[in-house]
Structure formats: structure tokens, C-alpha cells
Design a protein that fits this description.
- By secondary structure, the chain is an alpha+beta fold.
- The two termini are about 25 Å apart.
- It has two helices and seven strands.
């Protein structure tokens, strides 16, 4: 079972990625592009150009997880950086949960497409 603590580090790749990548391709992106170690225990988030798909790479101490989510409507509220040279952004674990749950990261309100009661 996956369980994340409040001290979890979450890194977002700011540029869109190739959602066809699996374990090895995402691990290469983390080490070569984001300049991080996949075995650090952090979550690494990737999205497609349209921001309708999300992939997460996570090392749990015994192996790699690749988690994927495809939205049926709407887009993820993808963060951006004020630094044009930035390739990654660190998020708080709470912001990661909000991003996955359809909350606009600026203003903390549900996006119009999100409806949990459906």
C-alpha cells in the first residue's frame, strides 16, 4: 500500500513530457533533466502538453512505482515558475493532493470540471 508522510518531497517537471515513457524513461528524466536521484524517496510528477494526463514516479525503498491518471474532462492546475530557466518546482505534499483532487493551486478553489458527486 502507498502511504505518504507530511515530510514527503514532491517535484514537478515544469515542461510537458512524453506520456509513453515508463519506468526507465521517467527515471532517466529524473536523473538527466531534473538532476535528482529517483531513490531519494521523493515523488516526481510529469504531465502531457494538454495537462490532461499525470504520471508519478516514486521509489518506496524496495522498487519503483509509476502511477498514472487521465482526466475525462478538464485539465490539471499545473504550477509554473517565475524563473524561465527552471525545469522543476518543489511542491508541498498538500499541494500535490490538491492538484490531484481538482483544486486550482492559485486561489484554492475547485476547478469547474471537478464534481465528486457524479
Amino acid at each position: 500500500m502507498l502511504s505518504f508522510s507530511g515530510s514527503l518531497r514532491v517535484f514537478v517537471a515544469l515542461e510537458h513530457g512524453d506520456m509513453r515513457k515508463g519506468f526507465n524513461g521517467l527515471e532517466a528524466l529524473v536523473s538527466d533533466h531534473l538532476k535528482e536521484s529517483v531513490q531519494s524517496g521523493a515523488l516526481f510528477l510529469f504531465s502531457n502538453r494538454k495537462r490532461t494526463r499525470l504520471k508519478v514516479l516514486y521509489w518506496d525503498g524496495s522498487g519503483l512505482w509509476v502511477l498514472s491518471k487521465r482526466l475525462e474532462e478538464g485539465r490539471f492546475s499545473w504550477p509554473s515558475s517565475t524563473n524561465p530557466k527552471a525545469v522543476k518546482l518543489r511542491l508541498r505534499p498538500e499541494a500535490f493532493a490538491m492538484l490531484c483532487d481538482g483544486v486550482e493551486l492559485k486561489g484554492a478553489k475547485f476547478l469547474p470540471w471537478y464534481d465528486r458527486d457524479r
